[in-house]
Design a protein that fits this description.
The chain is built from 5 helices and 4 strands; from the N terminus they run αααββααββ. The protein is of the alpha+beta class and 139 residues long. It has one domain. The two termini are 28 Å apart.
Length: 139
């Protein structure tokens, strides 16, 4: 499945060859390639891809939404995964964002609601967003 996604992504990005400089295109391909490699690992941690999209423009973007359960994301589990993936920028960014979202949510003293939603936007500057519970307003 991931190889099909990767091939489709590569084809879409390569279609931009006429509008993106060669250097920018190569950088974008490298960033997207690095991020695509983390999805099998996130699946092992209980996160399922529920949405996958690619935006083609001068600066292409990849948007992936994953769904999971809070029970797979204890502080201890996150800490172990951070140690295991030390030096791996993409997955470390995801794990750190999840850890921070849980810490901040606990400070609100509000009950934790299911599910865990992980939204990743990959572009020249990647963005990771964690949603704890279903949002009522889509961004």
């Amino acid at each position: 499945m991931l190889s099909d996604l990767w091939n489709a992504t590569l084809k879409g990005v390569n279609d931009l060859a006429g509008t993106v400089s060669e250097g920018a295109k190569e950088k974008t391909l490298k960033v997207i390639e690095d991020w695509l490699e983390i999805f099998p690992q996130l699946a092992e941690y209980g996160l399922e891809i529920t949405s996958f999209s690619m935006g083609l423009a001068i600066s292409p973007s990849l948007n992936v939404e994953l769904l999971g359960s809070h029970e797979n994301w204890s502080d201890e589990a996150i800490a172990e995964r951070l140690v295991e993936h030390k030096g791996e920028t993409a997955i470390t960014m995801v794990l750190s964002t999840i850890r921070t979202a849980y810490r901040l949510q606990r400070q609100t003293k509000a009950p934790l609601k299911d599910p865990l939603i992980l939204k990743i936007t990959v572009k020249i500057t990647p963005e990771v967003r964690v949603v704890l519970g279903f949002p009522f307003v889509e961004e």
